Amino acid sequence: MRIFIATGEVSGDIQGALIANEIKKLAPQTIIDGFGGVEMKKANVNILSDMSTLSTMGIFEGINPKFAFKKLGAFNILKEYLKNNKVDVMLLVDNQGVNLILAKYCKKNNIPYIYYFPPHVGIWGEWNAKRLLSAKKIITPFQFDYDVYKKYNCNVVYSGHPFADINYNREVSPLNMDKKEYTVGVLFGSRYQEIKKLAPVFIKSMKILNDMLFGNIRFIIPVAYPEYREPIENIIDNYKDLLNGICYSVIENKDDVYIYSDALIMSSGTASLIAACYGKPMVICYKISHLTFLLGKFFTNIKYVGMPNVMLNEEAAPELLQRDCNPNAISSHIIKYLTDKEYYDKTSSNLIRVRELLGDKNVLERVAKEIIN
């Protein structure tokens, strides 16, 4: 059996690697090629093009010559690959900006495809479900998306989310207000645009928090992807005078930020769902071009941007969007977490409820069987 996995962002690379490993457990002779990144390479997937840092946010943000040329080049590589190799199934993972185009190509050329982590039709508009009627199978980890795809007669399976299999009972540092020293995780995001827009705002928030707490605070800045370490350090270097005297560390073990932080400042991506599962109070931040934001409000059903809030259908964690995403507002929320134990505990308990919405355990095994069969 030969499978081609196509993804184009950090979270997709991680999920692609997880499912590739599981497929090879169940069917060791399976040949897996694909578009992916570091994690899929570790899973012994033959990578034709590294697309893992090309994900964009918004409509106009995606109009980037560097990204466009690489995507076009990758598409040409794929067409040549498909001429020379018979693929039993194309597995599209997340990254709707590229994978919806590939889905259309597969339909036109009678190539069977499965979409895993498909577009959030429950958020971006139900009409998008019709675009995947040609899919051999749609495998979604979210119940709210499953309901919409089913409504439009798509061949859809609800798998539950792989995060259901994570052990969240590891020793997590509780908030200890008596120690008078706090740790705050600062997550710039997993896309270049996020990092570029949010990092300066987050760094200024670090300065305000450090001043308000008289230096009794340290910050952990995890790197979502190895290639992002250099641009993150370059941005930090641009603010070295502002950060003078502030205790912070840039780390590559992302899990540590959830275990050792008291609270989190973060972008609206997948990391916010993991943080909620750990019960970590957070401020979810979101910044895109103003025009994209206005179009999004007009054409979509977006009520919340953070996945924990979407799943719980309430603002369990505060969201700061566009102009509201500023250092003073961010700092205000974090200070409230760190100085009001009752509010902190209530927020933590509320966020942990998302675990109940992740589905049953052994998710990857179920997904792998759906793909192989």
Automatic annotation (TrEMBL):
SUPFAM superfamilies: UDP-Glycosyltransferase/glycogen phosphorylase. InterPro entries: Glyco_trans_19. It holds the Pfam family LpxB. One of its GO terms (molecular function) is lipid-A-disaccharide synthase activity. Its EC number is 2.4.1.182. One of its GO terms (biological process) is lipid A biosynthetic process. Keywords: Glycosyltransferase, Lipid A biosynthesis, Lipid biosynthesis, Lipid metabolism, Transferase. It catalyses: a lipid X + a UDP-2-N,3-O-bis[(3R)-3-hydroxyacyl]-alpha-D-glucosamine = a lipid A disaccharide + UDP + H(+). It is an enzyme of class 2 (transferase). Signal peptide: none annotated. The keyword Transcription regulation does not apply. It comes from the Bacteria. The keyword Cell membrane does not apply. GO terms for cellular component: membrane. Condensation of UDP-2,3-diacylglucosamine and 2,3-diacylglucosamine-1-phosphate to form lipid A disaccharide, a precursor of lipid A, a phosphorylated glycolipid that anchors the lipopolysaccharide to the outer membrane of the cell. This is Lipid-A-disaccharide synthase.
